[in-house]
Amino acid sequence: MDWGTDLWDQCDVIDKHTQAGLDLVERYIKFVKERTEIEQSYAKQLRSLSKKYTKRGSKEEQECRFSNHAAFQDIVKELNDYAGQREVIAENLLINVCGELTKYLQDIKQERKSHLYDAKKAQQNLESSFKHLESTKKRFAKEWAEAEKASQQAEKIENDVNASKIDVDKAKQHLHARTHAAEECRNDYAAQLQNFNKEQKAYYYTEIPQIFNKLQDLDERRIRRLAAAYCQFSDIEKKVQVIIAKCLDGISTAGEKIDEKQDSLLFIEQHKSGFERPGDVEFEDYTQGIKAASSDSSLNPPRVRAKLWPFSRKHKPPAAEDFSHLPPEQRKKRLQAKIDDISRKLNRAQEESEALEKMKGVYEHNPELGDPSTLEPQMAQTAHSMGHLKGELAKYETWLSEAVGGDECAVVNNNNNNDDDTQHTVVTDDDNNHNSQNIYTEFDYEFEDVEAPVGQCTALYTFEGNSEGTISITEGELLSIMEEDKGDGWMRVLRASGEEGFIPSSYVKRSS
Q1: pTM attached to this predicted model
Q2: What are the tens digits of pLDDT across the range 86-99?
Q3: How many other CB atoms are found less than 10 A from the CB of residue 74?
C-alpha cells in the first residue's frame, strides 16, 4: 500500500499531512531550545552557588584544615563540575539536535515544495488539456449544427420548383463545405479526446502516484529522522551520566572521609593556651591582720587591682617581638613559624651567595665575560643579609627553647608616662611554687590616656575564665572590645564592672 495508489485523489489531505509533519519538527526544535535554555540557566546558577560558597583567604583556608570544612569545599567543587556537565548537555542539544535538525528541516521543506509544485503543474497540464478538449468538442458541435442546417436548406431549395439550378448548386456547395468542416472538427475532437484520455491516464496512474510516493518517502524519512532526534535527546544526557555519577560519588566520598575525632584533635592543637589550671585558693587568716594575697580570687586591696596578663588596665603595650604576649602554646607555634620563615630566607640567601661566587670565578677565568669587581657590592650585601638572618634565627631559636622548657617569668613593663604620680609595679617571683601568680598594679583613680574600646559585643554563651589572663562572662552580657582577635581565637574585652581579660572570640557576637 502506498499513497500513490490508495490516496490518488487526496492531494489536499496529503498536503496538510506533510505540512503538519514539518510543523512537528519545528515544534520539537523549539522544545529542545527551551530545554537548552533551562540547562544553561541551571548550570549558571549552580556555578554561581559554587563560587559563592568557595572558601577564599587565609582565614578560610585555615578552617579547611578541618575534615568537615574540607569535605564541604570538595562538595562545592564537585557541584561546579556537575554544572559543567549540564553545560555540556546544553551545548550538545543545541548543536547536535537543534542545529542539525534545523538544517534537515530546511532541506525537506524545499523537497516537499518541489514535489507539490510538480503535482500542481501536472494538474494544470491536465486541466489545460481538458479545456482544449471541451473547446474542440464545442466547435465540433457547432460545426455539426451548421452542417445540419445547411443540409436542410439545400433539401428545401432542391424541392422548391421555383428555385433555379444555380440556387440548387449553390446550396449543395454550402452543404458540402459545412459537412467537410464538421468532419474536420469531429476528427480534431476525436484526436483531442484520445490525447486527453492518454494524459489523464498518465496523470492518475503515473505522474500523481510517483509524486505522492515521493511525498510519502519524504514523510517517512522525516519521521525516522525525528525519531532519531527523540532518542538523541536522552542519549546526550546518558553520555554525561557517567561523569555526573562520578561527581555525585565525589560528594558522597567527601562526606564519608570526614573524621570528627581528627577535627577535634586539630581544634585542640590550634587553640589550646598551654596555661596550667589554677591552684587552690589559700586561706587568709584575718585574725592575724590583712596581708597581700597571692591568689587570683583574693579581694582587691584599696587603690590596687589585679593586672591581667599580658596587658595592663591603662596601657596596651605593643605586640612583643618574642610573642610573649600570646598564650604559651600559641607562642610556640608563632616562634616555630618565624624560625621556618627565617630558615627559608637564609637558604635562598645562601643559594644566591653560592651563585655569585660561581659567577665571580667564571669572570676571573674569563675576563671578557665580565668584571669580577662589579659583583663585590652584591656579594657584600648578600653576606650582610645572611649574617642578619643567622642572628635572627639564633634569637628566635633561643626564645623557642625558653618557651618549650621551664617556667617563664613575667615580663616587666616599664611605663614612660609623664605622670610621676602613677606607679607601675609588676610583682615577679621565680621561686613561687604556684603555677599562677597575682600581679598587682597601683594606679591613680584619675585616669589619663584611657584606652578606648574598638567595638561592642554581646556574649552568646557563658564562659568560665579559670586560666590566667582570662575572665568569666555570662550569656547576654554586653562587653567592650579592647583588642580584636589576631587569629589565635582569643580577644580582649572589658566588662561593665571594670574587669578586663581574654575570652574565646566564638563566644560573642559583634554588635553592629
Answers
A1: 0.54
A2: 999 999 999 999 99
A3: 18
